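Suppose you are handed a protein chain with no further information: no name, no annotation, nothing but its sequence. What can you learn? This example shows the usual starting point.
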Amino acid sequence: MRPWSFRGLLILLTVGLVLATVVALEVSTYAQLRRLSREEARARAAREAARVLERFDGRLPLQPPVSPTALQEEVALWSSDHTRHPLAARLVLAQEIEARFAEERAGLWREALAGAAGDSILPGSGDAQAVAPLRGADGEVLAVVEVTIASTEVLRPVRRFLARTARTAAIVVAVALLLSILLGRRLARPVAELARRAAAMGEGDLRSPLPLEGGLELRALAGSLDQMRRERAAAEGELAGKRDELAAVLGGIAEGVYAVDRDRRVLYLNPPAARMLGVDAVSAVGRFCGELLRPRAELGVLPCEERCPILEARFRGPTRVMERLGMPGSASGERTVVLRSSPPAAGIQVQVMRDESAVEAAHRARDLVVADLAHELQTPLAAQAAALELLRDRLGESDPELAVLAASAESGTMRLRRLIDNLLESIRIESGQVSLRKLPVELDEVLEEASEMTRPLLGQRRQELESTLPFPLPALVGDPQRLVQVFVNLLSNASKFAP
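A reasonable first move is to predict its three-dimensional structure. Written in structure tokens, the prediction is:
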């Protein structure tokens, strides 16, 4: 539904007030005129009845005893002279009154028979009626004069008034409508112009000033809106400057920065992030961040579905994770990045993304070199350890000094092998190639093997290992080789820091 304009409302209000005033005056005047017309009709009927009485001088020219025939002749003679439109005058004999007239007239007729004149308005027809008694020579009421004025004659002045009033009201309404149109156009023009400029200001036009036209109130309103326009223009100018500064800062850093809302939809993407992801910064706004980053699934589960760094930062504070993102256009098909997520502020959450692909490639190259070197060292160390063990066994009691030297060399070889094993294990852990076997484990065998491997080290430092195990030992499931390595590391550290 289209809203009313200011000019339309003004015209409608003016015409409505004029119509209401005219109608109220007409209703009030009509009621008073109707009442006066009825009173005038009653008075006129009474005057006509009085004229009849003057003709007869208040008495019939008959002496009692009056014969009905003589009375009827007198009535007929009188009626021929006094019945004319719109007046109706007649003479009714006293003996006919009770039998001929209805109950609503009985009161007025009874008063006339009692010798009193009267007048009234008939309820049904609205006619004005007046009655007057005519007496005989002896003063007895012989007949009653009735004068009736029709209702059409009674209300004729009212109808003339209504016709004149309708013409006057039409003229008044037409004049009021014309004046309201002219006045509304004059008053509505500055209001419409102010509304148009306010709408333009709401759409972003803050350069054009608002017109200061109209009355005092309208000028005050326009002045307030223009002041608000200037303040908003200044604030938007300052905001645009800060936005440009922020865009320059974010565009000059090497890391990619993007912001998301509560639904993890992108609100902002700086140029490095757009280049890193291979997307357009403008078209990326509004898209789900998982569609842009394309993270690789781990164990069949996408990071967006479980352990999302954005969601974790909302509840646990700042987070830092490393993810592999799918890059169809790159040579390797993926990119390794480090994501740092901050908690949300004002409904916006910022993520900083650093490309670690080159670093990751360097780490992989380093790990390959170290792994190859470790494998190359394992073979001679294994042969050296076997030779030292054989030498130590053959020397026995024959040459204690050489046996001590052989034990020392064997201990150094064992430490070197353990360092190489730990280095290979750390490389496997960093590359995600760690695999654990689940086998039944005899804990006493694991401890015995670890003790045998650390015995040369303990003997060199003149340390002894005592172990007390409960019986029976619980059944375990695990990786025996990893468990032996764990106990060897524990015993080596204990030997290192023991007296």
